[in-house]
Amino acid sequence: MHTVWKGSISFGLVNIPVKLHAATENKDIKLRQLHKECHTPISYKKVCEGCNQEVKEEDIVKAYEYAKNKFVVLDQEELENLRKENEDKAVEIIDFVKLTEIDPIYFERTYFLSPDTTGSKAYALLRQTLEQSGKIGVAKIIIRSKEQLAVVRVYQNALVMETIHYPDEVRSVSDVPNIPSEQTVVPKELETALMLVEQLTTEFNPDKYTDDYRNALMELIEEKKATSTISASDKRPVPDNVTDLMTALQASLDKTKKPAPRKRTTRTKKNA
């Protein structure tokens, strides 16, 4: 597994060297965009709207827009130093709470925690402590230049860390439009709905659920591979601006050429 982050987690005086690995992966099928006429892949370029030209990566700086068209430019070295100051700190578990006290709306992404070379004993201690207490740890961590609130818990035989949103990142329910106010529910309708829930109630088995759309799309792709495969064009037309530039250069060259001097013609006088 690829290591996303390397550091340590501590609770009390116990320090656990750990590595962080993404626990989930996106299985979406990525489709490319081609030009309908020649089947050449469509590319996206970073273009400066003011200069109307493509910008290289080294010519791009980061900035914060604090008002319309008003920016504070942040130097990359400043950002790197700020990130290092926080990232080098150990992740300290600051509280222990019950998992049921955290609404799922707060959860963001899950990572596996693995012990580093010397961390196996402390890792096992935290794992067993969480299991027997029935609690999860609340901590903070810097990932990709962002301070994240996170929880540490046990999943099967491993410790996992799940980043969670801060309260101000979760939008207020009062901002959601058209939510009906409390209404009187017909008892018979409620009874029928509860019976339906009871009939559909089962133990959660994740293997039971599959992505039907993704499977159908892959079947369609396999079918079309056998019957209608196309090759992308590798002949890209010369942009008009290049042609115009050559024309302008040639015109400029022709303009600098001095016209050939005219030959003087001498007239002979006729004898009277």
TrEMBL record:
Gene3D superfamilies: 2.40.290.10. Residues 258-272 have a biased composition (Basic residues). Residues 52-181 form the Ku domain. The keyword Cell membrane does not apply. The keyword DNA-binding applies. Belongs to the prokaryotic Ku family. PANTHER family: NON-HOMOLOGOUS END JOINING PROTEIN KU (PTHR41251). Homodimer. Interacts with LigD. This is Non-homologous end joining protein Ku. It comes from Lysinibacillus pakistanensis. The gene is ku.
